[in-house]
UniProtKB/TrEMBL annotation:
Residues 1-48 are annotated as: Disordered. SUPFAM superfamilies: WD40 repeat-like. Residues 7-19 have a biased composition (Polar residues). This is 60s ribosome biogenesis protein mak11. The keyword Repeat applies. PANTHER family: P21-ACTIVATED PROTEIN KINASE-INTERACTING PROTEIN 1, PAK1 INTERACTING PROTEIN 1. Signal peptide: none annotated. It comes from Mycoemilia scoparia. The keyword Repeat applies. WD repeats lie at residues 90-129, 171-212, 327-345. Pfam families: WD40 (PF00400). Keywords: Repeat, WD repeat.
Amino acid sequence: MSKRLKTSQQQKPNTNFNNKKIKSSKEGTSTSNMINIGDELSKSSSGKSLATPCKEILITAGTYERLLYGITGKWNAKHDKIDLMPIFILPAHTGCIKTISIGGRYLATGSTDETIKIYDIKKLREMGSLHHHSGTITCVKFHGQPHLLTTSEDGTISILRSKDWEVLKTLKGHKSTVNSFDVHPSGKMALSVSKDRLAIVWNLMNGRKASKTKLYREGEIVQWSPEGDAYAIVTGNEIYLYKTADAAVYSVIKHTHSITSIKYIKDSSSSSPEDLLVVGSQSKLITVYKADKSGTLVKSWVAHENRIKDVSTIEISDPSSELKSKRILVTASSDGKIKVWDFDSIINSNNDGEKRIDSEEDQYEPLGLYDADCRLTVVNASSNITGK
Protein backbone atom coordinates (compact mmCIF):
# COMPACT_ATOMS: atom_id res chain seq x y z
CA MET A 1 0.00 0.00 0.00
CA SER A 2 1.48 3.35 -0.99
CA LYS A 3 1.15 6.73 0.66
CA ARG A 4 0.33 9.80 -1.39
CA LEU A 5 2.85 12.62 -1.00
CA LYS A 6 1.98 16.27 -0.54
CA THR A 7 2.65 18.56 -3.49
CA SER A 8 5.36 21.18 -3.01
CA GLN A 9 5.30 24.76 -4.23
CA GLN A 10 8.71 24.30 -5.88
CA GLN A 11 8.41 20.83 -7.35
CA LYS A 12 5.82 18.10 -7.44
CA PRO A 13 7.35 14.96 -5.92
CA ASN A 14 6.69 11.88 -8.02
CA THR A 15 7.78 9.23 -5.54
CA ASN A 16 5.57 7.10 -3.30
CA PHE A 17 6.64 5.27 -0.17
CA ASN A 18 5.48 1.67 -0.02
CA ASN A 19 4.29 0.56 3.40
CA LYS A 20 5.69 -2.60 4.95
CA LYS A 21 5.06 -3.91 8.47
CA ILE A 22 8.00 -4.19 10.88
CA LYS A 23 7.61 -6.98 13.39
CA SER A 24 8.88 -5.07 16.39
CA SER A 25 10.20 -7.23 19.24
CA LYS A 26 10.76 -6.80 22.93
CA GLU A 27 14.24 -6.73 24.39
CA GLY A 28 16.29 -9.71 23.28
CA THR A 29 17.37 -12.17 25.94
CA SER A 30 20.38 -13.57 24.15
CA THR A 31 23.47 -13.18 26.34
CA SER A 32 25.74 -13.03 23.29
CA ASN A 33 23.71 -10.12 21.90
CA MET A 34 24.22 -8.10 25.07
CA ILE A 35 27.92 -8.83 25.36
CA ASN A 36 28.68 -7.86 21.76
CA ILE A 37 26.79 -4.55 21.70
CA GLY A 38 29.84 -2.45 22.54
CA ASP A 39 32.10 -4.38 20.15
CA GLU A 40 29.63 -3.97 17.30
CA LEU A 41 29.06 -0.29 18.02
CA SER A 42 32.80 0.38 18.12
CA LYS A 43 33.07 -0.95 14.55
CA SER A 44 30.36 1.41 13.28
CA SER A 45 31.25 4.69 11.60
CA SER A 46 29.84 7.29 13.97
CA GLY A 47 30.86 10.92 14.16
CA LYS A 48 32.43 10.68 10.69
CA SER A 49 29.81 12.56 8.69
CA LEU A 50 32.42 15.06 7.50
CA ALA A 51 35.12 12.47 6.67
CA THR A 52 34.06 11.46 3.16
CA PRO A 53 32.72 14.21 0.88
CA CYS A 54 29.54 13.33 -1.00
CA LYS A 55 28.53 14.46 -4.49
CA GLU A 56 24.92 15.23 -3.60
CA ILE A 57 23.19 15.81 -0.29
CA LEU A 58 19.89 14.61 1.09
CA ILE A 59 18.22 16.92 3.60
CA THR A 60 15.47 15.42 5.72
CA ALA A 61 13.34 17.63 7.93
CA GLY A 62 10.43 17.21 10.33
CA THR A 63 7.65 19.65 11.21
CA TYR A 64 5.01 20.46 13.82
CA GLU A 65 2.48 19.66 11.09
CA ARG A 66 3.62 15.98 11.16
CA LEU A 67 5.13 16.17 7.68
CA LEU A 68 8.46 14.59 6.76
CA TYR A 69 10.44 16.31 3.98
CA GLY A 70 13.12 14.76 1.79
CA ILE A 71 15.07 17.33 -0.25
CA THR A 72 18.02 16.76 -2.56
CA GLY A 73 20.85 19.26 -2.90
CA LYS A 74 22.76 19.36 -6.18
CA TRP A 75 25.47 21.77 -7.34
CA ASN A 76 24.50 24.33 -9.93
CA ALA A 77 27.97 24.99 -11.35
CA LYS A 78 26.75 27.85 -13.53
CA HIS A 79 25.57 29.93 -10.57
CA ASP A 80 27.81 28.39 -7.88
CA LYS A 81 24.75 27.49 -5.84
CA ILE A 82 23.08 24.36 -4.50
CA ASP A 83 19.68 23.64 -6.02
CA LEU A 84 17.25 22.21 -3.44
CA MET A 85 14.41 20.07 -4.74
CA PRO A 86 11.92 17.92 -2.76
CA ILE A 87 11.67 14.23 -3.66
CA PHE A 88 9.10 13.36 -1.01
CA ILE A 89 6.76 15.11 1.42
CA LEU A 90 5.13 12.54 3.63
CA PRO A 91 2.53 12.73 6.46
CA ALA A 92 4.74 10.52 8.63
CA HIS A 93 3.18 10.71 12.09
CA THR A 94 0.03 11.67 13.96
CA GLY A 95 2.05 14.00 16.20
CA CYS A 96 4.87 16.52 15.92
CA ILE A 97 8.15 15.08 14.56
CA LYS A 98 10.81 15.61 17.24
CA THR A 99 13.88 13.79 15.97
CA ILE A 100 15.45 12.37 12.78
CA SER A 101 18.49 10.22 12.06
CA ILE A 102 19.97 8.48 9.00
CA GLY A 103 22.21 5.44 9.10
CA GLY A 104 23.26 4.11 5.71
CA ARG A 105 20.06 3.34 3.81
CA TYR A 106 17.76 3.72 6.81
CA LEU A 107 15.91 6.79 8.04
CA ALA A 108 14.32 6.89 11.50
CA THR A 109 11.89 9.49 12.84
CA GLY A 110 10.49 9.94 16.34
CA SER A 111 7.36 11.80 17.35
CA THR A 112 5.07 12.93 20.14
CA ASP A 113 2.76 10.10 19.00
CA GLU A 114 5.08 7.69 20.88
CA THR A 115 6.17 5.84 17.73
CA ILE A 116 9.36 5.54 15.68
CA LYS A 117 8.98 5.21 11.91
CA ILE A 118 11.61 3.42 9.82
CA TYR A 119 12.18 4.11 6.10
CA ASP A 120 14.43 2.60 3.46
CA ILE A 121 15.54 5.77 1.67
CA LYS A 122 17.39 3.86 -1.06
CA LYS A 123 14.16 2.19 -2.13
CA LEU A 124 12.02 5.10 -0.89
CA ARG A 125 9.90 2.69 1.10
CA GLU A 126 8.28 2.96 4.52
CA MET A 127 9.23 -0.18 6.45
CA GLY A 128 6.93 0.25 9.45
CA SER A 129 6.80 1.45 13.08
CA LEU A 130 8.51 0.62 16.37
CA HIS A 131 6.56 0.79 19.63
CA HIS A 132 9.00 -0.22 22.36
CA HIS A 133 8.84 3.17 24.16
CA SER A 134 6.05 4.96 26.01
CA GLY A 135 5.71 8.74 25.85
CA THR A 136 7.18 11.21 23.37
CA ILE A 137 10.23 9.97 21.47
CA THR A 138 12.95 12.49 22.31
CA CYS A 139 15.93 11.20 20.34
CA VAL A 140 16.75 8.64 17.64
CA LYS A 141 20.33 8.19 16.53
CA PHE A 142 22.02 5.66 14.27
CA HIS A 143 25.56 4.61 15.06
CA GLY A 144 26.61 3.74 11.53
CA GLN A 145 23.94 1.59 9.88
CA PRO A 146 23.91 -1.54 12.10
CA HIS A 147 22.49 0.02 15.27
CA LEU A 148 19.80 2.51 16.24
CA LEU A 149 19.64 4.06 19.70
CA THR A 150 16.40 5.64 20.91
CA THR A 151 15.14 7.55 23.95
CA SER A 152 11.81 8.85 25.20
CA GLU A 153 9.84 10.29 28.09
CA ASP A 154 9.87 6.86 29.75
CA GLY A 155 13.45 7.53 30.88
CA THR A 156 15.06 4.61 29.01
CA ILE A 157 17.61 4.23 26.22
CA SER A 158 17.10 1.35 23.79
CA ILE A 159 19.71 -0.20 21.49
CA LEU A 160 18.27 -1.87 18.40
CA ARG A 161 19.82 -3.91 15.62
CA SER A 162 18.78 -2.77 12.14
CA LYS A 163 19.10 -6.30 10.76
CA ASP A 164 15.80 -7.31 12.36
CA TRP A 165 14.96 -4.26 14.57
CA GLU A 166 15.31 -6.33 17.72
CA VAL A 167 15.83 -4.41 20.99
CA LEU A 168 19.19 -5.77 22.10
CA LYS A 169 19.39 -3.83 25.35
CA THR A 170 17.42 -1.26 27.35
CA LEU A 171 19.51 1.06 29.52
CA LYS A 172 17.73 2.14 32.70
CA GLY A 173 19.08 4.79 35.06
CA HIS A 174 17.11 8.00 34.62
CA LYS A 175 14.00 8.79 36.66
CA SER A 176 12.48 11.12 34.07
CA THR A 177 12.54 12.07 30.38
CA VAL A 178 15.85 11.52 28.59
CA ASN A 179 16.33 14.84 26.78
CA SER A 180 19.40 13.97 24.75
CA PHE A 181 22.14 11.39 24.34
CA ASP A 182 25.20 10.83 22.18
CA VAL A 183 27.48 7.88 21.45
CA HIS A 184 31.23 8.36 21.87
CA PRO A 185 33.18 8.19 18.56
CA SER A 186 34.77 4.94 19.78
CA GLY A 187 31.33 3.35 20.11
CA LYS A 188 32.27 2.01 23.54
CA MET A 189 30.39 4.51 25.70
CA ALA A 190 27.52 6.99 25.57
CA LEU A 191 26.34 10.01 27.51
CA SER A 192 22.76 11.00 28.36
CA VAL A 193 21.07 13.94 30.09
CA SER A 194 17.58 14.05 31.55
CA LYS A 195 14.94 16.13 33.24
CA ASP A 196 16.11 14.49 36.49
CA ARG A 197 19.27 16.66 36.12
CA LEU A 198 21.50 13.60 35.89
CA ALA A 199 24.26 13.19 33.32
CA ILE A 200 25.04 9.48 32.96
CA VAL A 201 28.03 7.92 31.22
CA TRP A 202 27.13 4.45 29.94
CA ASN A 203 29.57 1.61 29.32
CA LEU A 204 28.24 0.11 26.09
CA MET A 205 30.52 -2.90 26.41
CA ASN A 206 28.35 -4.25 29.22
CA GLY A 207 25.26 -1.99 29.06
CA ARG A 208 25.78 -0.55 32.56
CA LYS A 209 26.26 2.89 34.10
CA ALA A 210 29.92 3.89 34.29
CA SER A 211 29.26 7.10 36.24
CA LYS A 212 26.59 9.68 36.96
CA THR A 213 26.75 13.37 37.81
CA LYS A 214 24.09 15.64 39.28
CA LEU A 215 23.97 18.82 37.22
CA TYR A 216 23.22 22.27 38.60
CA ARG A 217 20.43 22.62 36.01
CA GLU A 218 18.59 20.28 33.68
CA GLY A 219 20.72 19.15 30.75
CA GLU A 220 18.91 19.66 27.45
CA ILE A 221 21.50 18.72 24.80
CA VAL A 222 24.68 16.65 24.97
CA GLN A 223 27.31 16.09 22.28
CA TRP A 224 30.80 14.57 22.10
CA SER A 225 33.62 16.37 20.31
CA PRO A 226 34.86 14.77 17.03
CA GLU A 227 37.81 13.07 18.79
CA GLY A 228 35.79 12.23 21.88
CA ASP A 229 38.26 13.95 24.23
CA ALA A 230 35.61 16.46 25.32
CA TYR A 231 31.86 16.91 25.40
CA ALA A 232 29.33 19.72 25.68
CA ILE A 233 26.16 19.91 27.78
CA VAL A 234 23.58 22.63 27.13
CA THR A 235 21.44 24.04 29.93
CA GLY A 236 19.23 26.98 28.95
CA ASN A 237 21.50 29.60 27.39
CA GLU A 238 24.76 28.10 28.66
CA ILE A 239 27.13 25.49 27.22
CA TYR A 240 29.31 23.60 29.70
CA LEU A 241 32.45 22.08 28.15
CA TYR A 242 33.93 19.02 29.88
CA LYS A 243 37.13 17.04 29.50
CA THR A 244 36.36 13.36 29.01
CA ALA A 245 39.38 12.21 31.03
CA ASP A 246 38.21 13.63 34.37
CA ALA A 247 34.67 14.92 33.63
CA ALA A 248 35.80 18.38 34.76
CA VAL A 249 34.31 21.60 33.37
CA TYR A 250 37.00 23.56 31.55
CA SER A 251 34.82 26.31 30.03
CA VAL A 252 31.33 27.80 30.20
CA ILE A 253 29.97 29.63 27.16
CA LYS A 254 27.11 32.00 27.95
CA HIS A 255 24.90 32.62 24.96
CA THR A 256 22.42 35.48 24.59
CA HIS A 257 19.32 33.29 24.11
CA SER A 258 18.08 29.82 25.01
CA ILE A 259 19.96 27.29 22.89
CA THR A 260 18.04 24.89 20.63
CA SER A 261 20.88 23.06 18.85
CA ILE A 262 24.66 22.71 18.73
CA LYS A 263 27.13 21.03 16.39
CA TYR A 264 30.87 20.42 16.77
CA ILE A 265 32.94 21.15 13.67
CA LYS A 266 36.67 21.55 13.00
CA ASP A 267 38.21 24.93 12.15
CA SER A 268 40.05 23.99 8.95
CA SER A 269 41.56 27.47 8.54
CA SER A 270 44.04 26.84 11.33
CA SER A 271 47.36 25.02 10.91
CA SER A 272 46.36 22.95 13.95
CA PRO A 273 42.57 22.53 13.54
CA GLU A 274 40.57 23.45 16.62
CA ASP A 275 37.08 22.43 17.63
CA LEU A 276 34.33 24.96 16.99
CA LEU A 277 30.73 24.92 18.21
CA VAL A 278 27.95 26.02 15.88
CA VAL A 279 25.00 27.25 17.94
CA GLY A 280 21.36 27.76 16.99
CA SER A 281 19.02 29.40 19.46
CA GLN A 282 15.77 31.27 20.05
CA SER A 283 17.28 34.19 18.14
CA LYS A 284 17.53 34.45 14.34
CA LEU A 285 21.33 34.17 14.47
CA ILE A 286 23.79 31.37 13.87
CA THR A 287 26.74 31.80 16.22
CA VAL A 288 30.11 30.04 16.21
CA TYR A 289 32.36 29.76 19.28
CA LYS A 290 35.77 28.27 19.91
CA ALA A 291 35.28 25.08 21.93
CA ASP A 292 38.32 25.79 24.09
CA LYS A 293 38.92 27.36 27.48
CA SER A 294 38.41 30.85 26.07
CA GLY A 295 35.02 30.14 24.47
CA THR A 296 35.76 33.02 22.07
CA LEU A 297 33.02 34.21 19.72
CA VAL A 298 34.27 33.52 16.19
CA LYS A 299 31.35 34.50 13.99
CA SER A 300 27.70 35.49 14.25
CA TRP A 301 25.32 36.18 11.39
CA VAL A 302 21.63 36.66 10.66
CA ALA A 303 20.48 33.35 9.20
CA HIS A 304 16.68 33.41 9.43
CA GLU A 305 13.68 35.60 10.18
CA ASN A 306 12.75 33.57 13.25
CA ARG A 307 14.33 31.26 15.83
CA ILE A 308 16.71 28.51 14.71
CA LYS A 309 15.32 25.05 15.44
CA ASP A 310 18.17 22.80 14.31
CA VAL A 311 21.53 22.67 12.51
CA SER A 312 23.37 19.92 10.65
CA THR A 313 26.71 19.66 8.81
CA ILE A 314 28.08 17.67 5.91
CA GLU A 315 31.01 17.80 3.49
CA ILE A 316 30.27 17.92 -0.23
CA SER A 317 32.65 17.56 -3.19
CA ASP A 318 33.59 20.81 -4.89
CA PRO A 319 32.60 20.49 -8.57
CA SER A 320 35.50 22.73 -9.61
CA SER A 321 38.11 20.28 -8.31
CA GLU A 322 38.06 16.58 -7.45
CA LEU A 323 40.64 17.28 -4.76
CA LYS A 324 38.57 19.92 -2.98
CA SER A 325 35.41 19.85 -0.93
CA LYS A 326 33.12 22.29 0.84
CA ARG A 327 31.81 22.01 4.36
CA ILE A 328 28.10 22.70 4.31
CA LEU A 329 26.00 23.96 7.21
CA VAL A 330 22.26 23.30 6.98
CA THR A 331 19.87 25.30 9.18
CA ALA A 332 16.14 24.99 9.81
CA SER A 333 13.96 27.68 11.38
CA SER A 334 10.45 28.30 12.64
CA ASP A 335 10.11 30.65 9.65
CA GLY A 336 9.64 27.50 7.55
CA LYS A 337 12.90 27.87 5.62
CA ILE A 338 15.79 25.46 5.21
CA LYS A 339 19.05 27.14 4.23
CA VAL A 340 22.40 25.77 3.09
CA TRP A 341 25.58 27.73 3.89
CA ASP A 342 29.22 27.58 2.76
CA PHE A 343 30.60 27.25 6.28
CA ASP A 344 34.31 27.72 5.53
CA SER A 345 33.75 30.81 3.38
CA ILE A 346 31.74 32.45 6.13
CA ILE A 347 34.19 31.55 8.89
CA ASN A 348 37.19 32.79 6.88
CA SER A 349 35.58 35.99 5.58
CA ASN A 350 36.92 39.36 6.65
CA ASN A 351 39.52 37.93 8.99
CA ASP A 352 42.73 38.99 7.17
CA GLY A 353 44.63 36.17 8.84
CA GLU A 354 43.08 36.74 12.24
CA LYS A 355 39.64 35.97 13.62
CA ARG A 356 37.50 38.98 14.41
CA ILE A 357 34.26 39.28 16.36
CA ASP A 358 31.48 40.15 13.97
CA SER A 359 28.45 42.33 14.48
CA GLU A 360 24.99 40.80 14.92
CA GLU A 361 24.06 42.54 11.71
CA ASP A 362 26.48 40.54 9.54
CA GLN A 363 24.62 38.81 6.75
CA TYR A 364 25.69 36.26 4.15
CA GLU A 365 23.98 34.74 1.15
CA PRO A 366 23.09 31.06 1.51
CA LEU A 367 24.11 28.59 -1.18
CA GLY A 368 20.54 27.32 -1.28
CA LEU A 369 17.10 27.90 0.21
CA TYR A 370 13.92 25.82 0.41
CA ASP A 371 10.66 27.17 1.84
CA ALA A 372 8.68 24.32 3.40
CA ASP A 373 5.89 26.68 4.42
CA CYS A 374 5.64 24.70 7.69
CA ARG A 375 6.95 25.08 11.22
CA LEU A 376 10.18 23.10 11.07
CA THR A 377 11.39 21.21 14.13
CA VAL A 378 14.45 19.19 13.11
CA VAL A 379 16.84 18.79 10.17
CA ASN A 380 19.46 16.25 9.07
CA ALA A 381 22.00 16.37 6.22
CA SER A 382 23.42 13.19 4.71
CA SER A 383 24.73 11.79 1.44
CA ASN A 384 22.01 11.34 -1.18
CA ILE A 385 21.69 7.62 -2.00
CA THR A 386 18.16 7.78 -3.41
CA GLY A 387 19.23 8.21 -7.02
CA LYS A 388 16.71 11.03 -7.37
